[in-house]
Predict the 3D structure of the following.
Amino acid sequence: MSLRSLHDWLGWVVVGANAAVGAWALGAQWLLWLRRRPLWWCVGIAQALLFVQAIVGVALYNEVGGEGPRLHMFYGFLTIVSVAVLYGYRGTLGDRRWTLYGLGSLFIAGLSLQAIANAT
């Protein structure tokens, strides 16, 4: 598998994983039975996939000689910043942390879709 096809495939995995954990976390805000430790493990995995995707993207950028769509890279960078913002606010909202991670993960999925849309 080439770096380009890995980057393309992993982009869709990032979108799906973050959308899924976003929906799960939003549901957990109102449905107590959804508040389980595996949610946080899945959030961590979905966000870690962003960093893997970024590493693959940098490797691809270097492979093609430093050429790439600037808007695509901008949205990719924003996804990483969004993870940092979510992490920074995680302790400040108390019982609303499920809403924070739900909306934040859906936002990351949306940014990832924008990055995919601007990949050409």
Observations:
- The mean pLDDT is 94.
